[in-house]
Amino acid sequence: DGKLQILKVSSALFYGLSSFMITVINKTVLTSYRFPSFLFLSLGQLTATIIVLYLARKFNVVKYPNFSYDIPRKIFPLPLIYLGNMMFGLGGTQALSLPMFAALRRFSILMTMILELKVLGVRPSFAVQVSVYSMVGGALIAASDDLSFTAYGYTYVMITNALTAANGVFVKQKLETIEMGKYGLMYYNSLFMIVPTLFGSWLTNDLQKAYDFEHWNNPVFCFQFFLSCIMGFVLSYSTILCTHYNSALTTTIVGCLKNISITYIGMFIGGDYIFSWLNSIGINISVLGSLLYTYVTFRKKSSTTSSSSSSTLLSVKVSGDDYEEPLLSTQNEKSSINTV
């Protein structure tokens, strides 16, 4: 279906652009300006999401269910995953150079591939597996000679990888099993987590650190901080949209393809990247793996694949239209991983 294919590609491009912009803006705010609290920045992003979605619903731009006491049970554990992914992602951005952050984030692809198999029953093709292992292998080589290594930065990124994989898979599951919708998930994830985040910021003295920050009188910084908060909402929306029309693995991969450009541009942002040959070789191997996956995932399906009817089919409701997609990959299928 042509319309569905356009939705798939456009949602993936939208997510990639949003992810690129927020990564660069966050790095500038947290590293170039040395903003002291990634937790406070998370609070700003949650607040922006709540305000924008509340106003959009009030003016009938979007729709999502009214609050009820069973909503936390329906969407759990997504709010916790959502907040953790946001906080540790910002922490990793602050602690690591962008090239290494981008390389290490590719571990989330392997985790997503495993989770999609276990939770959604989706098995990737051999070509997908080869590309994923290439990305992860390159990241390991790069990490083995990272001259700017920080243990807490690596820890933040690996936690983010696990949460990214879990978020992609469970968002997919929740969108298909409850009448919440992508807007409802975004709004209630942020709403339920804003008080714990505010309390955490107060407990760690991050509120005071943010209040005492010296650049609040700098209009350029304030504009970038505002953009970072707004882009948090845009990225959340684009992530759910991309996961809705594509597989969770494809969403994660698009984010990592964005990291190809971030990898090289990031060498000049923040001033914290230290070059070494082994590190550079590993980063480039990981980039080549990303390019291979892009080719495997988005290439045109062969006629034998399109005519195959041996896959299990699942009807999925999207914007009022029903369509069917293969649930499990078949032996003769040449494409990568199927939308569930």
TrEMBL record:
Membrane topology: Multi-pass membrane protein
Organism: Corethrella appendiculata
Main location: membrane
UniProt GO cellular component terms: membrane
Keyword vocabulary terms for this entry: Membrane, Transmembrane, Transmembrane helix
Record protein name field: Putative fringe connection
Localization in the cell: Membrane
Residue spans crossing the bilayer: 6-25, 37-56, 76-104, 125-143, 149-171, 183-203, 223-242, 249-269, 275-296
Domain of life: Eukaryota
Sugar phosphate transporter domain span: 13-293
Record's keyword annotation contains Transferase: no
